Amino acid sequence: MAFHAALASGDTDAAQTHLSEDVVIFESGGIENSRAEYASHHLEADAAFSAAVPRTLVSRTHGMQGDMAWVMSVETVSGTYRARAINSRSVETMMLRQVNGQWRIVHIHWSSADIS
Description:
globular
């Protein structure tokens, strides 16, 4: 939740603090293999989109085993971004690892589909 709050507020530095250096992000068939790669490619655009288009949580499940945890979320995303109407369902899986007492995101898988 803190990662998404940082994105929505446009605070990309804070968003990065929630990612491990070796995070792997899958989105729309693409792969980013590190925090640095994500920061240099999609982070700014993701923050702009998150700030412009509200998300509404539909469901969330989570679990934990040892130093690993997972969060699976379904959200609706509705609004306008760059003069384009957005009305979609977004699904997200995040894997987190506890390092030195801090949870860091090690994997994100995002996908979305338009709601008819």
